[in-house]
Amino acid sequence: MIFLLSLWLSKLLSIIISACKLGQASNFPGKVALLITNDFLTHFKFNKEIKIILITGTNGKSTTCGLLCNILKSAGCKVITNKAGANLLSGISSTLSFHSDIFGNIEEKYLVLEVDEATLPLITKFIKVNFIAVTNLFRDQLDRFGELDTTAKLIEKGINNCSNATVILNADDSRVAFLKANNKKIYYGINRVIPEGSPLNDKIWLNDPQENTVCPECKSELVFTTKLMAHLGNYKCKQCNFKRPEPDFAVSGFKADDLIINFDISSNSFSQSKNNFFLPMIGLFNLYNALCSIAIAKTILNVTSVQIQKGFQSYSTIFGRGEKIIIKDKTAWLFLIKNPTGTTEILKTLSTVPNARFLIAINDDFADGRDVSWLWDARFDILSNHKKDIYVSGKRAEDMALRLKYANIHQDKIHIQENIVAGMNKSLKSLDSSEILYILPTYTALLELQRKGICKAAPKD
Amino acid sequence: MDNKNEIILELAYLYPDLLNIYGDRGNVLTLSYRCQLRGINLNVTPIKITEKIDPEKVDVYFMGGGQDQQQIIVSEDLQSKKNDLISAIQNNVVFLAVCGGYQLLGKYYKAADGTELKGIEAVDLYTVAGDKRMIGNVMCEEIESGEELFGFENHSGKTYLGSSTKPFAKVIRGGGNNGEDGFEGVRYKNIFGTYLHGSFLPKNPYIADKIIRLALERKGIKMPEINIDDSLENLARKKAEKLRY
Ligand SMILES: [Zn+2]
User: Fold this and answer.
1) In the CATH hierarchy, which fold is given to the domain comprising A321-457?
2) 3-state secondary structure of B56
């Protein structure tokens, strides 16, 4: 009875919040329900055939979750999912209470949730899940969990709560592949050498940002035969037997150009030996997200290649992950930047686009990471051959300008405009008719553009 | 091209692949850039674990900070380089050590559970884990010059200096070495130890030049005096002055 009361209250709150346009009802209703019934999630009655899929990891949760939902929808499935970023206990409680009937029954057969790493054990304590996917493990930019090992142990605890769940793991991330669990495991990874044209710096100490290159088993150094981005690649321990597991789903080749990634997948679970897909996104990290979504979709349901491709094409990007805007006949694209690896991957792609111009907006609020040191780990030197002027904005525009100076960009070509909207207007004005502006904002800089109505997509909260 | 007057400085960059998460490579970029402006060729040699250093050759050492696992590996490897490094330091070689690298120059880092991570005992200092993380934008004043210094600190270790050393700076805003005595970093011989990331040197070109000058003077070479346009550096410093902790 208490459960029903908290369910109704939570439902009522989401109605009020959306009716009064008080913002998104993605966390608050669940938060209130949890205050009354702290095991709120255990009381929902799911469809007997339901498949519950959780996606966790440092980067790519929202995108992987979105891509998977699209694939399932194009295969005709009814899917429930949480809003991007509503990935804590409160957000997930809000999602379930919103989609259930007034008695807590949930009819749909697919529940796909992105789950914060530290929240995973809390969810699996209350709900029996069928699949858990782990995308990757990076040091948290906001320093919420401290060390990487702490995060990995939380995920292990989450998986161990559900011994019957199948886990889907990124084979290319040593700390993910090493997760200790007796569950059935499916691996995915990219089987390919360094992508063509990837700019390497001749000074090795200036190469791509990387971390986590220590063997999780014996703490010796890991050696890599291939490294695709950051610490993801084909690795082997110098001392013990630990090495990258053979992937069940492997990208066997890819080509990235014109803001599209074209790739082949080889897996025993497809009838053909080679399956070609294209993804309307940029950056290797999105190739990993797409691969993960395919691995999950193929494992839970026999979707066809056509259904997968349809899912990718209908995917509209989420907040700041590549949104096109047109202002006064000028075209601009928005790409959120938040850490050295993601930024480096975006720069690698955009530096090959002809007629590209740049506006980089750096804030240092809590949600951006208050320490801007990461700008020095990102490979801004990739822009060193850029001939045109670059605009910098945001609360730390001066730090960004200094970073560009050390990327060999002449300081006469660097324009500082702290106010982001003014920076955008000035840089748009400076474009000639053939040029396109690429705006690279940090999280709160992007929020500012959204509040001014410049970009549309819904933010994570 | 062979210029008889060409000045060469050798920089050994310790463990760039393990201690690499706080943008510390910006320090090496700054030294390299400011050397270049003066016609000095700064050769950077990355030193990985198990690799030997040639102590006769090196003019400047740099070591940054990393995660716990990486620090453990580095601490073990440093023991084999300990004697070479200590004699180099006694011979006034210039050494910039940031955060984890700074801690490892001392006696030990004592974790909360009592386990000790060994340093190389090159400087009379030790570090103990604190229960409060010191994290934020720091402003301080170099003791030798009164010059304002800016950076970002992020550490829970509390460092205490012995009597044979001097602190690097006086804290104006921030935690510094231990959040207790109001001092930041260490100065001993030609060692600069600091908790400041940022990167540190890009926004503190005065210290970058000082490091270059000390390295040259040790070799009996006078620092080439030139005018450098530091307008972007000064804008970033002005901004840093206004940041909150
Ligand atoms: Zn090993």
Assistant:
1) Protein-Tyrosine Phosphatase; Chain A (3.90.190)
2) coil
Interface test with B, best of A202, A374, A406 (most B CBs within 10 A): A406
- Whole-angstrom distance, CA of residue B79 vs CA of residue B67: 19
Whether the Cβ atoms of residue B145 and residue B206 lie closer than 8 Å to each other: yes
- A461 has pLDDT over 60: no
pLDDT > 80? residue A288 = yes
A214 touches chain B (CB under 8 A): yes
Which of A154-158, A344-348, A364-368, A444-448 shows the highest mean pLDDT?
A154-158
A205 touching B, CB under 8 A? yes
> Which site among A140, A219, A231, A373 would you substitute to test the B interface, given the most B Cβ atoms closer than 10 Å to its Cβ?
A373
Question: What is the CATH topology of the domain spanning A2-313?
Answer: UDP-N-acetylmuramoyl-L-alanine:D-glutamate ligase (3.40.1190)
Q: How many CA atoms lie within 13 A of A100 on its CB side?
A: 27
The winner for highest mean pLDDT among A109-118, A146-155, A451-460 is A109-118
Count of C-beta atoms within a 10 Å radius of residue A396 = 26
Q: Which own/partner contact pairs does A83-86 have at CB distance under 8 Å and 24+ positions apart?
A: A83/A24, A83/A26, A83/A458, A83/A461, A84/A114, A84/A318, A84/A319, A84/A458, A84/A460, A85/A26, A85/A114, A85/A459, A85/A460, A85/A461, A86/A26, A86/A27, A86/A461
- Place A459 in a pLDDT band, splitting at 50, 70 and 90: very low
φ, ψ for residue B202 (rounded to 5)?
-55, -40
pLDDT of residue A21 exceeding 80:
no
Segment of A9-18, A183-192, A251-260 carrying the highest mean pLDDT = A183-192
CA A125 – ligand 1 centroid, Å: 32
Q: Which residues contact A103 (CB under 8 A, 6 or more apart)?
A: A4, A45
Per-domain residue ranges of chain A: 2-313, 321-457
Residue A86 confidence (pLDDT): 87
Q: Are residues A399 and B236, on separate chains, in Cβ contact within 8 Å?
A: yes
Whether A235 and chain B come into contact, CB under 8 Å, resolves to no
The domain that contains B190 carries what CATH number?
Answer: 3.40.50.880
Q: Give the whole-angstrom CA distance, residue A257 versus residue A39.
A: 48
- The structure's pTM equals 0.86
pLDDT of residue B49: 87
Which domain covers residue B66, as residue numbers?
A: 3-242
A177 C-alpha to center of ligand 1: Å? 13
* Residue A315 pLDDT: 84
pLDDT at A275 over 50: yes
pLDDT under 50: residue ranges of chain B = 1-2
Chain B, nearest residue to A375 by Cα:
B23
In B, which residues are within 8 Å of A147 by CB distance?
67-69
Please, which pLDDT band fits residue A214 given cuts at 50, 70 and 90?
confident
pLDDT of residue B27: 97
- Please check whether residue A128 touches B, CB under 8 A: no
Helix (H, G, I), strand (E, B) or coil at A233: strand
Chain A residues within an 8 Å CB radius of B69: 147-149, 214, 219
Domains identified in chain B, total number: 1
Closest residue in chain A to residue B153, using alpha carbons only: A371
